[in-house]
Structure formats: structure tokens, C-alpha cells
């Protein structure tokens, strides 16, 4: 007799026992009492099924057909998937992704050492950010397992993947790529990608062979214009996260050109913080500069780790003075001034008035070699004015004349 799956309900052991005793098959009741895995995220799973709308049957099918050993992982994957995925992904896609993720966990010694919560959050997911949902898992397993088959440690395995990904996928960095958030096969079809597209490729390559991985990035540098994304990997030896890139540094993990700039990130600023992606909800979202309205990708703020990692590259707060004043018609004008860095207000005050000593300025202590914005109101038009300045790397002060 077929059990109807129109509803999924939680059953206590007593309820199941009564149902079995009277020979009743209730819609949504599992054949085996332990089929429904009670977890810390059962409530999120139920909510996600509601969000799925007309696609709920596909998610139910994935939950029903997943092997028992993989069931808890499937529950986690669906519980925290973006709502847009819940309404669109089919069961075959989800079952294939989970099956090959568990295959890597079974076949590689380092993958077996990964704690379950890290495996669920940073190996099992089928997506990195908001890219198109390609069915890459099986293909990437076959592509990259040959490079790690002789690796004895995870570090050997991740280095093998990192060194061979360009040769295997034949994708290079190129600003002529069609879009920043390309999926794996979109990048492979073009042979080019942005730093975000390259990071998605590397992230998937690591995950395909059971290496915990996530995309990290900063929406805006404090030291220059622009943003950047890269990849972090979790290692079982120290149970910690380390960074690398599609083009790896010869010195290995936690080395590369980006460290000097990352060490000067500002953890108090939304735009100047460094984030690492997460599958499970965190209360924060990963800022995707190509679509800042999209808040579906959870994230953790990891800025402090990069500031500490930068060591001598991390610049103190008392390194440079902005000496600000406003001149109109050869005379100083006292006006309110706001000093910003991205979305963060650094300071506000008033520029010197005509009767002040010429050696007096409105002074703000900031960091060397970083970008700041000054904002004030024009005396005549009343319009707000904004001026961008970059502090010097080799001086302890910078005189700034508002408006010129």
C-alpha cells in the first residue's frame, strides 16, 4: 500500500505506535518511525516547505527519496536554501548534489575528519553566492578527484586543486566577461570570469572533493577604489579558516597581494568590512556589489581576523591627520564638515573661522593610505558637496582645502 505524502507531520513514538497497532496509514506519516529526523533546524525546514509554494512537491520528493545516511544533510540543505531556490529547484538536482557530496566524504580521508556542521554548511551546498544553479557537483568530482587521489592530507589535496584548476577549467581573469556573478559553466563557456566568477569556480572545486570552502570578499577597499572576492578553506589540523585565490600564492595559504589591503579593512563599516559566505542563517548577509538589494546569501563578518593576520601591514588609527579648512575669496569660512569612510561616519566638526590662527585647522586622525569622503554644505547654493581624499602612505598629515 502506498503512503500518501501530501503532508509532512512530526510524530511522537506513541503516535506512531498507535497508528501501527490499528493498521492506519496516515498521510505524511513515515513507514519507519525514525524516518523524520528531528534536528535543531526542523522549524526552518517546515518554514521552507511553506515558502516553496507550488514547488513543495519537489522538495518533499527529495526529502522522501534521499538515503537514510544522507537524510540529515538534505534536511539542512533545504532548511536554509534561499527562498528562490525553494520555489524552483527539482528533486533530481538536490538528490544528485547530496549524493556526490557524501561520496566525497566517504572516499577522502580528510573529508571524514570534517565535523558534521562544517560539512553541512561548507561542503554540501550547491551554490556559492547568487550565481545560476548549475548541476556541477558530479562533473567537478570527476575532474578534480584525479588530482587529489594520492594526497595524504587535506592541505596536499587543496594545493593540488588550487595548482591545477586553471589547467583543468581553462578560465582566466578578464574584465570582458559577460557578468560578475557567473555560474561555473557560464565562465567555462566563455573562458573568462571576474574575481567573483573565479572564486565560485575554486569554491566548487574544493567542495567537490570534500574540502570545506566558502567565498569571502570586501564590498569596497579602504585603500583604493573597487571591491574584491576570494576563497577561504577550513583545515582540520587547526580547525580554522585560511584564505587563498584562484591564482594561488607560491607561499601557500594566507599569503597574497590582497593581505596588505585586507588588513586595513574597517569592521565598523558595512562597506569596508570583510565577509565570508554561509549557508546557514547568521543575521548578516553577503554584500554582492552587482546586486546590493539581494540579501539571500548569509555571511559572517571576518574583518578582525584579516586585520590581525596582516600584522605589520595593519595600520594604526593615529597615523595621519586630516587638516581641514574652507577658503572663499581668500578668507577662511567656518562651515560644518562631516568625515566619512563609506557608510561610516568618522567625525564631524566645524572648519576654522576667519579670526582663527592660520595654523589652526579642523583636525581628524585617520589612517595612512586610505580613502575618505568629506561632506559639507555650499554657502551660496545650500547644496551638499562631497570631496574624496586619499591619505598619504609616507606622511603623518594631509592639508585638505574644501572645494579645491
From TrEMBL:
<keyword id="KW-0472">Membrane</keyword>
<dbReference type="InterPro" id="IPR038765">
    <property type="entry name" value="Papain-like_cys_pep_sf"/>
</dbReference>
<keyword id="KW-1133">Transmembrane helix</keyword>
<dbReference type="InterPro" id="IPR002931">
    <property type="entry name" value="Transglutaminase-like"/>
</dbReference>
<feature type="transmembrane region" description="Helical">
    <location>
        <begin position="12"/>
        <end position="33"/>
    </location>
</feature>
<protein>
    <submittedName>
        <fullName>Transglutaminase domain-containing protein</fullName>
    </submittedName>
</protein>
<feature type="domain" description="Transglutaminase-like">
    <location>
        <begin position="146"/>
        <end position="241"/>
    </location>
</feature>
<dbReference type="Pfam" id="PF01841">
    <property type="entry name" value="Transglut_core"/>
</dbReference>
<keyword id="KW-0812">Transmembrane</keyword>
